[in-house]
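FORM 7B - TANDEM STRUCTURE REPORT

SECTION 1: FIRST PROTEIN
SEQUENCE AND TOKENS:
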Amino acid sequence: MAPTLNHPSGVTFVEERPTNVDAATYYAGGDSYTRSRTYSTSHIHGYKPKKAPAFEEDWHLRPRRLSHDEKSVTGPRRFLIDVEETIRVVLEQEDTDGDFQISVTDAGPKMMALGTATSNGFKTFDIRGTYMLSNLLQELALARDHNRKRIVLDEARLTENPVDRLSRMIKHSFWHSLTRRIDGDGLEIITADPKNRTGRVNPRIYVPHGEPVMAEYYRKVAREKPHMKLDVQVLPEKPDDPSFVKSLNSKPGILALAMNEIDDGKGGKTLKGIPFIVPGARFNELYNWDSYFIALGLLVDGQVAMAKGMVDHFIFEIKHYGKILNGSRSYYLCRTQPPFLTDMALQIYNQLDRSDMEANRQWLKRAIQAAIKEYHTVWVAEPRIDPKTGLSRYRPDGLGIPPETEATHFTQILEPFAHKHGISVLEFSEKYNDGIIKEPKLDEYFLHDRAVRESGHDTTYRFEKRCANLGTIDLQSLLYKYEVDIGTAIREVFDDELQLEEEFDLAPFPPSVEAYANSRRESSKSRVQRSDEWFDRADFRKGIIDKYLWNEQKNLFFDYDTVKEKQILYESVTSFWPLWAGCASEEQCWKLVTQSLRKFEVLGGVVSGTEESRGKISLERPNRQWDYPYAWPPHQIMIWVGLERYGYLEEAQRLAYRFLYMMTTAFVDFNGVVPEKFDAVKLSHLVDAEYGNQGIDFKMVPREGFGWMNSAYQVGLTFMTSHMRRAVAACTSPEVFFGSAAQPPMLNANVSAVDPLGLAMENLSVSTLEISHQLQWNEEEVIGPDVESRETLLELAKMTNNAYLCDDDPDWYDLGDSWNDSYPFGWEPDADGFRGHVFATPDNETVVLSIKGTSAGVFGGGGPTSKKDKLNDNLLFSCCCARIDWTWTTVCGCYRGGWKCDTECLDKALIEESLFYSIGTTFEICRQNLYNNLTYIPNSNIWVIGHSLGGALASLLGATFGAPAVAFESPGERMAARRLHLPSPVSIADLKSSLSAAHAPLFSPLHSISHTFIIPPIR
């Protein structure tokens, strides 16, 4: 009996800790130890045995087996790792492009041996593939963050389901990293501004007029932290005067936000900033519409208090700055962004703790009052409203060149004017901003440019040189939602009476040129607000939306130019925002979904606009980031919610699947990246339009993601069924998951350019259908299994299970007296490929060939056939790149992101790797030595069955020899048949004209059994 082990006191064992948790929990505390019999010589105690290298004839010698070597059946695998040394080796070996990330574009071997914990590092295990190696690098970086020198790392963290991993990182890591506070503790982080081009890096904070306590608080912080050199400034009572705001361009700063009064621990009071979430990357401040979508993700993740605090900041901004600002920096004081406050507040209100409903009611009252003020003083006030039509516009005040842009952003625009005055662009910019040079045409250009930035869609050819004149469909939809939300809140929460506490002018209603020309305005305190007025406003807005923005011929909503008095026929995906707001009729919704959705739906979701509307791209006319082919989280979330609202749940789920698939594949292939936006046609985050992309510049481990992209993932998962979630985790292409018949014309037009499966199939040199018509076919009747009988299917399912096992295995199903003992094939000790069993009835009337499928296992598991199983799967039933899921390695090296593949690389892989020969040999062995031998049995009916890969091979054998085949949970055989140039019977080929390719079976004797579909036999 082994002696009792006396471990040191206070030791934490790895067996006792959770695995897939956030890094702070996983790496918190001291070192964790494994329960090893050689505990004293564990690597984590500093003992690092060196293995002698194997040279020449010694390479095959196996090391002496030790008592602590891993057994074939073991618990979860864990690795002993020296953090710094392993980081060095991983980067040196795998990071071939030197960006401190492991991605599919790196040319390293994609394999690394790690010492296992159960053997104290003596036995190693290979981790393979981009996903596992990038996860290893991330885990090492996180361990370093927690000051860990050596760790015991669970393999489960390297092979973690990517959907679970990304969702967990967003919930427990990314939100935390994006959290900011404006107070003494948070100022040093929040005052950093990557957009500051003045050269002055010392922090500056602007405090609003009427907040003397807050101003004194920040002055005290400046005195207590002199190293910060904090400059505290108090704004005038009207802080959004254009001339004043322009004067701040040379001295930008952060704007103070809402704070709570708390005890200072010394018997007094002090202030503490309310935390909020920033978008990330170069956007290190509170933003308007970003915050709405971020809040949706926060609510999914249960962070109601954080979302509530962001509404508190918006209430503060409306009170002190006159509007919800584009962003909380001084150069944004004249601009707002798309309004979402009412929906944001109501969604949070519905999730507040119900233990104090009166406090919740008072909080909602403050939010609704602020929204009413913003509505009257910003959105239906001049210059944003067009009194003639009643349409509201993005039309902010402002002077000069927007200072937050990159230095060269407007060079192309300014060069002609600088040349006109005979000075440099820099000198012209300074004189134009100072008002020394007057250029009315440039003034108009920047009026529209500021409007584009206020719209949130900066930039797009949709708004080029006209945005300030447009009554856009997105803004009208949002204001309709404001009007309905305010009316509903007044009626349902405030007993149909709401007295406004702050005084301001109410906008006239209904709007008209005469009403707005009258300078007399009704005061906000002159009467209580009632719901019927707000519902009347909503009805009026719906009327002008239908009148000016809906196009019956084109089945779309369009923006309306209030100056030219005509629709702008740029096709924008914001045409679906009325579904989110609820202002589209059922008929309009039906037309949008059935006639117009196809224009925007691509492989990775919905694009911002159509390629036709965008126009041709050239050096003189470069891409804009809010045009085709780019996809943004706000557009995805709005269309998902809108479609669901009108009952089109399947369409919403399909679009959500597309976008989350694109996010997940980028996460798997590119070191966990979560960017600001995507090229949804190429399925790429490598965007070269304008600012490029945000959220992609990190080292070793993603720490923030990007605000609204994080939310899109969390919200999107709420649309997923469990089956869809598993398919996304397996990186299953939407083409495969939904089938080609479900694809709209626009999407089908792009498939051949981006989908390797489509490329491989469409470019095959020999057409299966052409061969079918050239060959002579004989019709024969054969007896097949009754696939409508549950008992028959159960018996065949038992046989497919037995194909994986030896007949003495405890999991072997006893088939009773109805079947003779099996004849095994491919079970020789050195066999590593095609295997299974043959079953026969006692009279040999029926013989069943049962073929084993892909053996389960991840990186080394699954038995001796696992490797060839996967290679066969890749070449026959997927792309040679093997984009099956995050655990699979590739057959050839053509994959470089963006789903690029071609037939040549497929053929090359089949030939060079001898895989086509190997698979062909498999068929030859079966045909000559097995199948033909079976046909020698007189009067026998031969059926071929299998599961997974075995089922697909059974289908191909059935096609080759005309034998009935039953496949359980197997991939479709159509593409594999084409790759092997197997012809199909003419009758089936002829059926192609009458049956959809996605639903017509290729071979008449095949019957597929699946969790999701059954292909009926053709009789």
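SECTION 2: SECOND PROTEIN
SEQUENCE AND TOKENS:
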Amino acid sequence: MKICSIALVLLSGGCSTATAFVEPEVPSGFDAFEYVAPELKQVTDWDITERPNNNSTNNNTVTGFGDKESSPFYIDGRSGKPVVIMPEAASVLPGDGVGNRLLWTVGTSHDEGHGPLTDHRMLSEAAVEACKQWITEHQDEFGINVEELFAPGMVRTATLPNGDIQMSLKRTHQNIEVVGSRLAINIVAGNIVTAALEQWGDLQEDFDVTPAITAEDAMNVLSIHTGHALMVGDETCDSELQILTLANDVDIPVDSSASLRGTTIEPVQLTHEYKHVLTWKVCPKFDGQGDAYLFQGFVDARTKKIWEFTNTVDLFEAEGGVFPLSNDGKTPGGIEQPNWPMSYMNVGGQQTDVGGNFAVDGTASFTGRSVKLVDTCGKASLSRNEGDSINWGTSGGTDCTIGQVGGINVGGGGNTHASRSTYYHTTHIVDIARKHLPNNGWLQKQLTANVNIDANCNAFWNGNSINFYTSGGGCRNLGEISGVVAHEWGHGMDANDVAVGIAKPSGEGVADIYAALYDGTSCIGRGGFGGTCNLKGDPCTASLGCTGVRDIDYMAHDNKKAHTNSWARANCGNGVHCKGHVYSEAVWSLYKRLLPSLYGYDDLTARELTTYLFFRAAGNVGTWYNEKEELPSKGGCGGNSGYRAFLAADDNDGNLTNGTPHMKAIHKAFNDQQIACDDLDVQDFGCENRPVNPPSVSATSDNKSVELSWSTVANAVSYDIMRAEGGCQKGKVKVASISASGQLSFRDNGLKNGFEYCYLIVPRRNSCFGVKSTTIKVIPGTAQIPVTPQPTPLPSPQPTPRPTPQPTPLPSPQPTPPPTPNPITPPTPIPTSPPTPNPTTPPTPNPTVTARPTPIPTSPPIGSSNTTCAEANEKIFMLNLNYTRDVAGAISWKLNSFDILSETFVEYKAFNDIPQDQTTYKRRVCVPPGTYEVVISNSVGTGLGVGGRYAGFLRGREKFASDPSDVNNWTKRRHIFCFDQNNNDECASTSPSLSPSKIAELPLPGPQDAVYDTDLKVPRCSTASSSCSSGQLLKGRATVGPESNYPNTLDTCIDSTMGNYNISESIEAITVSSDTQDTMKEGDTVTITAKVFCWYTGTKDYADFYSATDVGVDSPPQWKYIGSVQCPAGKTQYLSQKYTLPKGSEHAVRVNLYYSTTGKRTSTTSCVQGDEFYSDVDDMVFTVVENTLQEPLI
């Protein structure tokens, strides 16, 4: 970092949107320097002009909007181009949409058994290809040039769980992004339902993209503007050229006919246009600006004019105590509750499950799958402190008060109220979001949360992290309040959805809705600010007691009137929190009043339906409503507005013109706020046969689990199992969707014993919600009798359900085992006492030690108990195998003897005589005094089969046996035994120069299988050999497969969890082998071979190879990049790289497999997540022999 003074800046010339919870009243400090040029500000206030559609018939063309000649059509008043196209039956992918007759092409890469695509990336690629063709065919109707779309990195898609797709296509000109100009597409049931243009003005082909100044010049302009020195090298984004779209403030009459060529829309005379300027987008950091500022500027690349300069920070079994809702000390939800589960928390090298349970000892901090806490009060660290649990405790006070267990502080300075509550709520809301948006890459990342920042009365999202202030100034600690945590997380979700970036005219409404639906209350941040909230002179009703910063229910304000678009124009000014009320109130009204009143939904079902719609709708919205529109019925007519997005989310037949299941409620909710549109007939269609009766539910508590079963509901196709923690009003995770054709039961595992969970079951008919069951509360691990609550009576105007008899509690279902057409004969147990050998005359001691025993010329019969040895000093070794018939053909074993001269094992006798029609095997071998190695092998890695065991005996005494807990997925097992001429079993007597431990470390003469090293936490070959293979230890990827002992890395690099096993990427095995087939030693050339599974055609998957040496528990690896390989095809592939072993006995290799849409990366960082976070990274450690040559090794 280098600080340049203003003088230096002037002489030398060079040296993501964020949000806040509370809006400052008066700009001060750096806030005073923020600036947006009027032409840029006005560009979002476009004129929407209604023109008649002259198409009098429904011809299913791009401009066919219905069967009525009077259907209105809206164009952008600046460009004359269509604002949105809503085609009928525009089928682009196979689906169930109206008029859709497309089928997946048999024999192509998009054919998955001739059924629907299940891999979301493959579906996404197919959608992009189909939309590109569709847009190309209709670019004249749009008045656009398709060549300005589909540039690398400018296409973003989201595939939803039901196969619907959202797509955002950013515009480029001569490979430079045109900011704000895009085409947004929504695909439902295979049909395009909306295609919306945003800020698409005509750009001259000869528009000059050559800058006259550098990015450093642009930052110097901003330094002069603020009067503050630049922190050179601390920029918060990469500088890049971008084309800004501006409003042309000069009246220039223009005829729109050129933009409407090929359509049936009547042209219009335009008086304003868009104009474009080339700018540098820069993100400088200034001396003294503080953490609450992340500046972004757009500086004209020719004239140095500042078009925009803004702060992108908008201000606002592990267990522990958590504030469920607030820290205001009031019930419900305002008092810290002890022993809440800390889900997915890192403990050692593992993560807890949803109930906070963990299987291995280790140290925990507030770091887990979804969030990493940074607490300015100190670090948090805790190991088991209460029986088998890590209990972070509870405490009084606030801010830096440390949690206590039994009156004693635990966990360090970072174990605060804010750390515990922020960790819990962030983890929980991410879990909810993942079920709605399973393919969103941002949700797979770990989010940083900074708590107890030394300031007060605010919280903010800064583009990378969520941040919360301590108490003071009349405010409580905002990191202790769930609504504030969910609000700031909501900004991150808004910034990382399909549309990318904080929504306009305000993203505050998005964040408020996420918080309200999570908490189940319209009061945002209850208790955080002490007094009653007030919205621009319309105070929150005191009797309702909202002590948060806002209440998004207009019925909770004194005026009891909607805060409409026209109200916002008159009262909000530039206040983004105020503008957010316009549409957040619409969504709350939809949930709280309209869905119940129009369709009879109870409160919880209405909330789950609203949550479902909101997660689907919000992702592709760039601008929720048109601020400038003065006609009440047209505020939502622009592009992909919030109203249009909700209709697309609600639609289930790929055609908006015939209505959607809840269109009347959606239209009224948005129309009451003046942000709907009147271009479609308002009609409900698509859920006429939805389930109308609630299911009856039984629940049984078990150890860390709950068993649910329920009754059949007519018209239900599936049942959603919803689970809440901390009361039935909190946001719910969809833990499963069960087909109505299967067994109507579900076991929820991994829960916390003694903690109350709330369940409800929602019958579904595809996208149509039925009436939920009664909520049912269950505490795992308690001796509860089955709970069977009465179903909730249906509210008016729902028809009265048929009488349902009181259901009898269902027993826990016992699944019927599938029939086995070829049963495997179970192995016969190995006897605990070996057979007694026939007595023989004690041998005469032989004073000579044989260096290399001579093999017995004749072998005794298998299993013979009458084996006699030819030499008096020989003893009988017997191997017993107990195996299954299905693996018999793959089993072999050999006996190796230790050669003193070469100090290596050499083959003594090999056996490939395992009977395939039996399940037991005994072989007796006569051996003279010496040291022996037994190697039992399975060529396909299945050990001895299910339940298989082995044991070795010398002179009738057991010398080794298989571990009873061993899982039979191995390829080799190795054991050593020895005896001398005095019948002494001490190996040192047979090889005086070697200790028993040294002999155990001797190299195998051939390949070696790694075993999992519990200290290094990766597979390891502890003795040198000709090759080292991970075997089955790396199969799968994290929870996809799953992979044993994941992440199997020597550092903090982890795998992603996106996708499905044997469809998405995974590393299946790693092998390091000597090119000479000799034991690997320093200086040798070896080959790393990775067995991987590549996605689709493999052309976008790459594997990076690394090596390290002298690794150990206290020696973090220093990875050295070797090279990268592209997958040559899809499915199972073998990728390899060679390298020379440097000096050192303990070596490590790493393979990083990742998905990339932009080709092989140029960076050599050793941990890559890949595009959309499809990546697998695995390490393996192996031992090599020291090189006896004198010359140094590199």
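SECTION 3: OBSERVATIONS ON SECOND PROTEIN
DSSP finds 13 helices and 61 strands in the chain.
The two ends are 34 Å apart (CA to CA).

SECTION 4: SIGNATURE
Preparer initials: ____
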